[in-house]
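stage 2 :: seqdesign
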C-alpha cells in the first residue's frame, strides 16, 4: 500500500467516532426518558444501551454529569432567527419554539425528570441552565427591552415580570394544560393575551 493510499483511508475513522457519540447521547436520553433518574443512571447502563465500551464514553466525557448536560442540551434547538420587525412577531417566534420543543415526547419526559432532580444535582442543573436555557432567557429579555425602547411596550414595564408572564403561561400549557397536541396558534394567543396588559 502506498502512502497516498494509506492517507486516503484515514478519514473513515471520523464518521465512526461521530456515530458512537450520537449513540451515547441517544442512549442517555432514552434511559432518562424511560424513568431512570440521574442518580440511578450509570456509565455502564449507557454503554450497554449505546453498544460501546465504557472507555469510549470516558474519552469524550470526564463524568456522568458532563454527559447528561450535553445530552439534555441537544434537546434544545438553536434559537430561531428573529425578524426584528415587531416585538409581537419576535415574541411569538420565541414562544413558538417552546411549543415545538414541548411537543417532543422524549424531550418533555427528560426535562421533567431533570427538573425534578434539580435539588439533588444543583451543579448539573446550573450548567444546563447556563448552556441551554440562559440564551433563550436573554433573547426574551432583549426583545422586551427593545419594545420598551421603541414604545411598543409600556415605559414602566417590569421586564422580569413581563418575561415571567410570557414564559410562565407557555410553561403552564406545555406541562399542566389539557392533554393532547398543543395548538399551533398557542404562542400567538399567549403573546396577544399578555400584550393586552403590557402595551401603553
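stage 2 :: out
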Amino acid at each position: 500500500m502506498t502512502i497516498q493510499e494509506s492517507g486516503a483511508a484515514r478519514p473513515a475513522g471520523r464518521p465512526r467516532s461521530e456515530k458512537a457519540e450520537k449513540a451515547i447521547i441517544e442512549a442517555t436520553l432514552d434511559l432518562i426518558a424511560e424513568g431512570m433518574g440521574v442518580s440511578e443512571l450509570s456509565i455502564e447502563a449507557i454503554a450497554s444501551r449505546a453498544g460501546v465500551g465504557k472507555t469510549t464514553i470516558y474519552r469524550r466525557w470526564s463524568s456522568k454529569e458532563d454527559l447528561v448536560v450535553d445530552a439534555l442540551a441537544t434537546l434544545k434547538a438553536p434559537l430561531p432567527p428573529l425578524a426584528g420587525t415587531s416585538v409581537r412577531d419576535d415574541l411569538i417566534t420565541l414562544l413558538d419554539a417552546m411549543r415545538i420543543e414541548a411537543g417532543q415526547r422524549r424531550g418533555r419526559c427528560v426535562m421533567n425528570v431533570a427538573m425534578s432532580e434539580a435539588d439533588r444535582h444543583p451543579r448539573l442543573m446550573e450548567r444546563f441552565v447556563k448552556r441551554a436555557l440562559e440564551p433563550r432567557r436573554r433573547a426574551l429579555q432583549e426583545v422586551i427591552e427593545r419594545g420598551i425602547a421603541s414604545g411598543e411596550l409600556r415605559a414602566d414595564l417590569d421586564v422580569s415580570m413581563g418575561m415571567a408572564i410570557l414564559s410562565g403561561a407557555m410553561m403552564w400549557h406545555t406541562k399542566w394544560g389539557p392533554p393532547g397536541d398543543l395548538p399551533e396558534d398557542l404562542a400567538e394567543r399567549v403573546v396577544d393575551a399578555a400584550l393586552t396588559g403590557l402595551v401603553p
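stage 3 :: structure notes
- Residues 87-198 form a domain with the Tetracycline Repressor; domain 2 fold (CATH 1.10.357.10).
- The chain is about 70% helix and 0% strand.
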